[in-house]
């Protein structure tokens, strides 16, 4: 199971520090975090500075040729720059051409098993099925991920399944159980994945044990115990 980070430059740094596999981007993030102040080239350069991980920049264009040309320009900045490209006819054509040049591409905004089949046929590095948006459209995202997993398992080589558009830890859990190779998210959800009330409660309950170990300061734990009403 892999985790891809996303979000602001600070999010990217935190995801990188916590063991993310790579960094994903999309135009919503470009708009939200850079607010029209930077070109796509400048954003790519900033992200390359913020992380040493593989970076997937989402690109667009009116034709496969336009997408390929834009991707080639950005890939020239660093070999670890790959691309997210919309799963549509011109996008799949662009993915096939870029992959043939050794440039890794992810087919994104993917909602069907047939789209996943095309992504495999053109040699995409990965696919990004949208979990939250699929659910909003009445699509069973878990069933979709499971079907793609079963189909890809019949291939000798297949794209990496990176589930995105995840809203909650429950979405992450469902995606991984359904067979996704990886999940992609911004730092706040990444951080929430690390937590569970029972884990927090167990740490507090250990305070009385740590207190009996010479030299151990458990003041911060005792404060938690008092708040939870668990102190002896």
Task: Write up this protein.
The structure is a single chain. The mean pLDDT is 93. This protein has an 8-stranded parallel beta barrel, surrounded by 8 helices. 51% of the residues lie in helices and 16% in strands. The protein is built from 13 helices and 8 strands. With 232 residues, it is α/β, with parallel strands linked by helices. The chain is globular, with a radius of gyration of 21 Å. Helix 4 packs across helix 5, helix 6 packs parallel to helix 8 and helix 8 runs parallel beside helix 9. Helix 6 links the parallel strand 5 and strand 6.
Which features does this protein show?
globular, 232 residues, 8-stranded parallel barrel, 16% strand, alpha/beta
Rg (C-alpha, Å) = 21 Å
State the helical fraction. Answer: 40-55%
- Give the count of helical stretches: 13
Structural class: alpha/beta
H/E element string?
A: EHEHHEHEHEHEHHEHEHHHH
Separation of the first and last Cα atoms: 41 Å
Unreliable stretches covering 5 or more consecutive residues: none
Q: Tell me the β content.
A: 15-25%
